[in-house]
Amino acid sequence: MNREFTFTLTRIRFDEDYNPSENTRITTNFANLARGDKRQDNLRNTLVMIDNRFNSLAHWDNPKGDRYSVELEIITAQLNIQREGKVDAFPVIEILKTHIVDKKTNERFEGILGNNFSSYVRDYDFSVLLPAHNKNKAKLSLPDDFGKLHGNIFKCFVNSEAYKNNFAKAPVICLSVSSKNTYYRTGNQHPVLGAEYQQDEPSLTDTYFSKMGLRARYFMPENSVAPLAFYFTGDLLSDYTDLELISTISTMETFQKIYRPEIYNANSAAGLQYQPSLNYQDYSLTRIVYDREERSQLAIEQGKFTEQHFIKPYQTVLELWSAHSVL
Fold it and tell me: For the chain, first and last CA: distance in Å?
């Protein structure tokens, strides 16, 4: 059945002239920045923040702190479902691809694919399926096979011809740490990723992403104030170059500073033991306008859209495919 599921990729440059496509999830952090009266200022300031952070981490042979810049592409993966002689399509995954420009040597390098991770099916799982399953329940529980379909779609994408023909390395997803868990510094120190942390128990996101074949490690880079969660396959520390890792850190830490400033733009850094909190008050705001409340509301709308246009129309074929998928 895997032959009946193929992917088509589209690429859009993320720069100060970026406008979200019709298929883009409008809750995605980069799409949210590109809306409203301050859209171009938002985009320009975000890109400056990314470049500045990159140069602060890639400081060797970089005396003025302006040697590098980061270029970003938004990669949308459209799932094509072949059935009864026709092909139906639905945009299932949206991720970021970094490129690194060395202005000293005039070279342009591939960065990491992944970074941000956006998915309509994830919206459905967390904003429609999970709340319905837990309605009137005192304690959170997960539906049977929660995240299995989503995980199989992701693994099918990474193993697809479309992916292999366009990308040389496995993706790395970089997200915020969970505000429900406590993190402990281990003593392990990486020259780029920084101080490693471990958590007291797996988060719901960890469990969900494990269905995608991804595992997590948590690092707080130099001059950061909170650890980031890195989800990957293979070996995070040896599969990617220092500049590739820096491109992910600079990109995703910037986004986190914008939409989770209580954690990532706090005025004091995480200690040996750390529990993130969105109720923390001692933090600074960026100059970038971002509507977090609207983003949460839109996630519910998009989850319902996914249910109506993807889950229900293709439920039988999706369940059959997911049950027999070998990835």
Answer: 12
